[in-house]
From TrEMBL:
Residues 1-25 are annotated as: Disordered. This is Cell division protein CrgA. The lineage of its organism: Bacteria, Bacillati, Actinomycetota, Actinomycetes, Micrococcales. InterPro entries: CrgA (IPR009619). It is found in: Cell membrane. Residues 1-10 have a biased composition (Basic residues). Pfam families: CrgA. Involved in cell division. Keywords: Cell cycle, Cell division, Cell membrane, Membrane, Transmembrane, Transmembrane helix. Its main location: membrane. HAMAP family: CrgA (MF_00631). Coiled coil: none annotated. The keyword Nucleus does not apply. It is a multi-pass membrane protein.
Length: 84
């Protein structure tokens, strides 16, 4: 049975990117701020629902309190995508 010829060229290896190696760990304040935003947003929404007449946390903005609470939670969640 005939033998197959060996490969003359080496296999292609892509060059290393400098961007991945340049990123270091997050600063010390990153995780506490991330968790605080998520918990504060949750407390904001829960407070809005528990106050029966919707006078807390900010009565002037009415149902936009839900948007503010979910916005805080979303900001915390988006920070989790940058967490290293």
């Amino acid at each position: 049975m005939p033998e197959s010829k060996g490969r003359k060229k080496s296999t292609y290896t892509p060059p290393r990117t400098a961007g991945a190696a340049a990123q270091g760990p997050n600063p010390r304040w990153f995780v506490p701020v991330m968790l605080t935003l998520m918990v504060l947003g949750l407390l904001w929404v829960v407070t809005f629902y528990i106050s029966g007449v919707h006078q807390y946390p900010v009565p002037q903005i009415g149902r936009w309190n839900l948007g503010a609470g979910f916005g805080l939670m979303l900001a915390g969640f988006l920070m989790t995508t940058r967490w290293r």
